[in-house]
Specification:
Number of helices: 3
Shape: elongated
Order of helices and strands: HHH
Number of strands: 0
Helix content: over 70%
Structural class: mainly alpha
Length: 112
């Protein structure tokens, strides 16, 4: 059973949570092109940058918990590993797209 917890939604969820926690605990102090939520809109000025880092870290953690929850529920339902992995990867891509559009609209709304 332990090895089945290493399916893609659980691993990806753990990575999202870890990335969100790292970004929350050690937010990038300056606008940079290596670390943090980096889009042209988020890099306009330091105020927008700080807002984007704080909000995106919370959303990453939330997405990570949802992916792990999906993986565990799918195991209890007895779904095939291939299906769990495929849906997990699909959810990760979907959530990444949602994260991008949500963040960009939140930044645009707060900083018109």
């Amino acid at each position: 059973m332990i090895e089945k917890l290493m399916l893609s939604p659980n691993i990806i969820g753990f990575i999202f949570i870890l990335a969100g926690l790292i970004q929350m605990i050690f937010p990038p102090k300056k606008i940079n092109s290596l670390y943090g939520y980096r889009t042209p809109r988020s890099m306009k000025n330091i105020e927008v940058w700080n807002f984007a880092q704080k909000l995106s870290s919370k959303i990453l953690i939330l997405i990570g918990f949802f992916l792990i929850l999906f993986g565990i529920i799918a195991l209890f339902l007895g779904l095939q590993e291939v299906l769990i992995n495929s849906v997990g990867i699909g959810l990760m891509l979907l959530f990444a797209i949602i994260l991008f559009f949500y963040m960009e609209s939140a930044i645009k709304k707060k900083f018109p």
